[in-house]
Amino acid sequence: MRLPLITILWAWSNWASASAHTFPVRDVPAVVGMELYGREISRPLMKRDTATVGADMTTYVSNFVNVSIGTPPQPMGMLADFLSDTFSVLTEDTHVTNPSCHDNRYCSLLGSYNITKSSSNGTKEVSSDTWYGSSYMVPTDVITVGGTQVNDVEVDLLAIGYPNWNSMGLSPENKSFPYQLVDRDLIRSPSFSLWGNTSESGGAGILFGGINKAKYHGPLQAFAFNKTYGTVSLPLSRFQAHTELKVPTNYTLSSSKPYMLSTQYIITTLPREAVLRMYKDYNISFVGWDGEEPQFGLLPCSRQYTENHTISLIFGDATISTKWSDLFIPWGSPDSERCEFLIQPEKENVNATYSGTIGTSFSNHMYMAINYNNAFIGIAALNENPGSDDILEIGDGPEIPDAVGDFPTSIVPYTKPTPTPTASTSTSTGLASMPTYMSGGMFVGVAGAALVAAF
């Protein structure tokens, strides 16, 4: 199967000396960027994830990037995953009984890695986190992102079969991909920005090490999160439903716990009491598992385009909105006359850490900048008609550029371990001239290398 064209905006340079409290301005900022793609995937129903009754398959939308692994390059799609810290790939292991790639939904869609066909594969000794502290060997290989090669990246080999899939781990753990880019002097801090509006033709993106001010309506509203929980979260005070010419209906959320941010699941879960009030106000019915309380809303699919509402989540001074029509998914089968509503009650007394999850129905409409050095996330509504790219590098200081928030006065930034793997670059044919970085943070004449991932 052929995945779409991925255009890589890439750049790096040797560091000039810069203050830890400023955002460096240089001709070529240290950023690595790639496009995101939305992909609908069918998978076996997991009761923990959804509450679809009477269906053994469900559809959800995730954010994917295209990369290649090894020498010669083996192209594949990867889930951009906030919940993982590993670079994980499906592999056809000839030493054990393992389904072939074309027999597996995920593998046939995203591709698999054959380590024996790569001349650049190797191994790396890794210290164990266990109490006895023994080290062990892990496989490594070159990961190519456009014209940039990231050498000696640890690769987690997965057997083909549910629930495994290819993923680029973006979690706060210091083994995740942003940290690997810092270790190889490709970006300055373990940070990245991500923006939505994903489709199979692209339009969304990730920019490691920087922000693109053209992609959102600023400034960014910044919030601290607890990165020891292993993922990114946001405080949410309320949500509202709005119909043209009518006063918005506000639904206050009483819980003080944050909400986990997801680039993987399409469903948004919020406190039960507020969601049930909305269901009642908008005539959304309930269904649930046998013997359990109602889990989610069900309504006629015909209401998807006959009603004009906007649903908004309120994060401090930032409002992230999605259309009513974007919150429907067919129930049971693609041609079903009934649809599942993609805002669902969070099951009570299950998660002691989070009040719910912000799914891709909303995260695809926000710009987010995440800095693991200071454990802050800045968010803003997307600019639907962005102009020329305006890129600022995220430095190793305590703030996020173009963001308003209660930042710490100082931090202890992440520093790469020693010794560190070397980094090299390769340039694809037809590479245009590199962009010029103007005073004030503007990228002029953006160009980059193009990589076609042919599956």
UniProtKB/TrEMBL annotation:
<dbReference type="InterPro" id="IPR033121">
    <property type="entry name" value="PEPTIDASE_A1"/>
</dbReference>
<feature type="signal peptide">
    <location>
        <begin position="1"/>
        <end position="20"/>
    </location>
</feature>
<dbReference type="GO" id="GO:0004190">
    <property type="term" value="F:aspartic-type endopeptidase activity"/>
</dbReference>
<dbReference type="InterPro" id="IPR001461">
    <property type="entry name" value="Aspartic_peptidase_A1"/>
</dbReference>
<dbReference type="GO" id="GO:0006508">
    <property type="term" value="P:proteolysis"/>
</dbReference>
<dbReference type="Pfam" id="PF00026">
    <property type="entry name" value="Asp"/>
</dbReference>
<dbReference type="InterPro" id="IPR021109">
    <property type="entry name" value="Peptidase_aspartic_dom_sf"/>
</dbReference>
<keyword id="KW-0732">Signal</keyword>
<comment type="similarity">
    <text>Belongs to the peptidase A1 family.</text>
</comment>
<keyword id="KW-0378">Hydrolase</keyword>
<protein>
    <recommendedName>
        <fullName>Peptidase A1 domain-containing protein</fullName>
    </recommendedName>
</protein>
<feature type="domain" description="Peptidase A1">
    <location>
        <begin position="63"/>
        <end position="380"/>
    </location>
</feature>
